[in-house]
Amino acid sequence: MAAIRNEDENSNSSVMNRFVYSNRNLWSGILFGIGLVAFIDETVFHQLLRWHHFYDKSTTDVGLISDGLFHAFSWFATIGGLFMFADLRRRNAIWPTRWWGGLFLGAGSFQLYDGLIQHKLMRIHQIRYVENVIFYDLIWNILAALMILIGLSLIYRTRSRQQLGKALSHEH
Amino acid sequence: MNINTHIHHNHGTELHHIASIIPQLILALPFVFAFNMYILAAVRSSRNNRWPLYRTVLWSIGVLFAVIAVAGPLANLAHTDFIAHMLSHLLLGMLAPLLMVLAAPMTLLLKTLSISLARRLTRMLRSWPSRILTHPIIASLLNIGGLWLLYTTNLYSLMHENTLLYVIVHFHIFVAGYLFTVSIIYIDPMPHRFSFLYRSIVLIISLAGHGVLSKIIFAHPPTGVPWEQAKLGGMLMYYGGDAVDMMIIFILCLHWFRETRPRTGLIMR
């Protein structure tokens, strides 16, 4: 504990703030992660590669609603997540590991939902209109699962207040 | 109005031309009037305390977009071309209202009016009809619900046959767009406020309703619209809506960011 007392005021309070705003770090990351994946989906797969179709005749009604809600939510989440990040910054409370954990969890979860539920179950559109789309699906969903695992492990590593002391000694 | 539709059925090109000009004038004149009033009020109120120039600029551009949407070449083309129709609707129902809301016309009006008139106006803003019309959910239903009615029933083709209906629909599109914007982002004084979370959720659901409708237009064109035009029009509605909504989301988040600034940080900066 002697080391803590020697810390300068700023970094000490920064580490304290991290714990106070631990949840906001997580949510900012999750929201931005969802927004980021949706943005890549839109620019790369819809616009640049043109693999995804704007509309697929086999889309179910619930698929149309789910796609609409997620599209709107991800649009909001991108901007909202970044404003939360700016808020953490001005409070000197950014916790990068936890934020990245949230980002991977949000990105992976949305990609897995998109890949399994929206593409396969609700059939809003396929990844690419080719014969062996199953390979594309496999890569898509395995990547999503990996992102979730990375996210969860980062969040687990930043989980509790008991690590306060440990985190403080890592600072220098 | 009856005379108008009567003329419309005549086949003389000159008469037809007049018939198409009258609804355009009816729709454009209120905007021209609003523009003049705003400039007049801005000049008058600047005598004591300068009214911000950027607000006047925003109002002018907003009015300009609204007029472009209802009168002139784009409005003429919109009768026969669905893509032009969609562009004019994005201007009239989304972009013009947003710019005009950002110009804070009610604040300017309250500044310019005499105290007793300003009090009466404030009382009006607090009244229950105004409370209902600027409720986020009601305003969203008026806005997005109106669009659903227009594009999923035969209202769209009826509107092009009946001048009165044409004027009402276009008037509604602007007013509903304005009320929706006012109900989500608070620029002017707002007596009955809703939390950021509440407004965010309503905004997301409205955005989703707008996106779903544009995909339905893409897949099932309104009566009388060729498929190719419906496809492009639907996509224009989808991405154009996203662009304007991005600005609304940004402003809403910015207001949250300002309102939640840490008060203890005063010593630091």
Automatic annotation (TrEMBL), chain A:
<dbReference type="InterPro" id="IPR018719">
    <property type="entry name" value="DUF2243_membrane"/>
</dbReference>
<feature type="transmembrane region" description="Helical">
    <location>
        <begin position="69"/>
        <end position="86"/>
    </location>
</feature>
<protein>
    <submittedName>
        <fullName>Membrane protein</fullName>
    </submittedName>
</protein>
<feature type="transmembrane region" description="Helical">
    <location>
        <begin position="26"/>
        <end position="49"/>
    </location>
</feature>
<dbReference type="Pfam" id="PF10002">
    <property type="entry name" value="DUF2243"/>
</dbReference>
<keyword id="KW-0472">Membrane</keyword>
<feature type="transmembrane region" description="Helical">
    <location>
        <begin position="133"/>
        <end position="156"/>
    </location>
</feature>
<keyword id="KW-1133">Transmembrane helix</keyword>
<feature type="transmembrane region" description="Helical">
    <location>
        <begin position="93"/>
        <end position="113"/>
    </location>
</feature>
<keyword id="KW-0812">Transmembrane</keyword>
